[in-house]
Amino acid sequence: MFRNIPIVTKNLLIVNFLAFVAQLILNPSHPEQSVLADLGGLHFFMASDFHVHQFITYMFLHGGWTHIFFNMFALWMFGVVVENVWGARRFLFYYILCGVGAGIMQELAQYANYAIENLAAYQYVNIGSQQMTTDAYINLWTTIGASGAVYGILLAFGMIFPNERIFIFPLPVPIKAKWFVCGYVAIELFMALSSSGDGVAHTAHLGGMLFGFLMIRYWNKHPNSSMNRSGGQEFFDKLKRNFDRHQSSGTTRMHVEPTDPKDADRQYNVRKKLNQDEIDAILDKIRKSGYDSLTKEEKQRLFEASRNS
Questions:
Q1: Which of 109, 295, 303, 297 is nearest to 204 (CA)?
Q2: Three-state SS for 267?
Q3: Does the global pTM surpass 0.85?
Q4: Which end of the chain has less Cβ packing within 10 Å, N or C?
């Protein structure tokens, strides 16, 4: 099964698990407090330990087994489908963009907290019975995890297949992907506004989805952009529309003139139905397994269907 996972999703899973293993080796009981998490985690941009590269490295680190399991499960479940539709290049760009966007939104939320608490006016802060410098305190504001990027992938799945029904525990019935995504947005928004100190970067989750939404809207409005040429749902829809127009014009691979006009209509409808079913089956195969899974004959059939558009 693992060998059927597309290349980017597969390598993202591997890198995340290897990074988590390294965290465990450095600090088995508290991987979120390991040296690797401190160096690669995303610090508040006004803290002394902040570095720009942390916008990338933070999304490959996790705080525990539950954290990494659910993130990687969601990446596998939705990432395989999205990458097969979009292609490796576009999928990787989107994943990194959502992760960076999640980090930016988390930084803005932390800055708001910094301003509200007016920390710039204090050299020391009291944390319970302990006193520490303000710089040491804001250095504790560290974000790790792939959740922002994964939430972006979840959004992409919902936008590509809005009416696809999926089973989500503990719901007893399947739910359409678009309502599943909307539900997650509502929950995260509520948690971001109402909860504090729960250790979950709800703003980052929303940020990943926001940047993903903006990127997909941009691609939809600019279908000829270079990042879009690797594939996408619009390609398959356009190909199918071209094929329908081609068939409706009466052009087929074989043309026989029956003597009876009724026979001609029946044969035309049969040929159109068979060709339509063939193209639909090929497009479904691309959506599930990618273009490279097609045989030489299937690729040639697609070329013939779109050549005269």
A1: 109
A2: helix
A3: no
A4: N
